[in-house]
Design goal:
Layout lengths: L1 H23 L4 E7 L1 E17 L2 E5 L4 E3 L9 E2 L4 E7 L7 H47 L5 H43 L1 H7 L1 E4 L4 E6 L5 E3 L4 E6 L4 E8 H4 L7 E5 L7 E8 L4 E4 L5 E11 L14 E18 L4 E2 L7 E7 L2 E12 L3 E6 L6 E4 L11 E3 L3
Parallel strand pairs: 1-22
Antiparallel strand pairs: 1-21, 2-11, 2-16, 3-10, 4-6, 4-9, 5-8, 6-7, 8-10, 11-15, 12-13, 12-16, 13-15, 14-15, 16-20, 17-18, 18-19, 19-20
Helix pairs in contact: 2-3, 3-4
Length: 401
Amino acid sequence: MKTKTWVLGGVAAAAAIAALAWSFAPRAVPVEVATATQGHFEASIDEDGKTRLRERYVVSAPLAGLLSRITLREGDAVQADEVLATLTPVLSPLLDERTLREQQVRVEIAQANVQRAKARIEGAKVALQRARNEAQRSEQLAKQGFVADTKLETDRLAVLAAQKELDAATEERHVAGHEVEQARAALVAVQRPASGSSAGFVLRAPVSGRVLRVAQTSEATVALGTPLLELGDTSRMEVVAELLTTDALRARPGSRVIIERWGGPGRLEGRVRLTEPAAFTKVSALGVEEQRVRVLIDLTSPPEQWRVLGDGYRVGVRIVIQSVNAAVKVPVSAVFPTSDDSGGMAVFVLQDGRARAQRVELGGRNDSEAWVTKGLQAGATVIVYPPAAVKDGVRATIRKS
């Protein structure tokens, strides 16, 4: 009986010791996990932008006179040389030498603008030929494998930019020619007020486009230089984004741009054409002064997709600064800085029920994913949002949802 009592007491003591050991033993930390995947990685600069016309023209009164009622309205299409309005000169019966000289100087200035526009056309032709030659050399070297594809694409974009510059110079020449005609007509009206006052002066459209704004709709007497209409070609649209100067350095010319939240279905494509060299100070909504710079973006999607866009529309732009295929990716919530002062990054990998700290090297990150260039293979199970209890070698278990 005594022996049985000792046996039962020993069993009870062993059970108590086992229970105490189990109760004080470290528990496995419940964690959330994700799998490292391999696929396309893309990092971008996200910002709001506005559309604007590449070129706009303000038609103003070349002389003081009585303006007839303008029947055009915003959105109306006009062709080059189409009659916009008629001015009947209202001239003083006594004209001094100063007024006559001013009109003569206006004619000379208009003629000088024509010569300047011609010089710009010649320069644009030279630049276009230079860009074509460079693109042709790049194509020949690319076939032999001596030039990267990015260099070939940049040269092709340079040809397009040079062609657009030539088109703009040609349009400027047309505008300058119309200004000469207006100045000469005004001079004739000053020199022969009797004959000019009865005939009236016709204002014509300098370019083909649409009416953006009508500043004076009713018949009225207007002064010299009064703005009357604003014209623009809505088929030549661009997007302007104001980026922080630190971000603008990464938005290089030729970078791909994805245009979202523009009001239509799907997304539009674009390319960075130019980053303006001068920055400006802008106060944010929180009252913080920021240095920003304008980035000009050309729309590369077919015009039929964005024809409904107008001047000054708000859009969202994503300027792609990194694009990598077959990249090893993990959620950004799985990456954390190392505890030492090396400035490195690490992740916790779940292996055999334990968390293992593993140093990694990152090639980039976006809002949701991080690109791992070294230290991790696709398919590894990583811990996301690691709690403070997770250390190297700690037991961990996947939290059940």
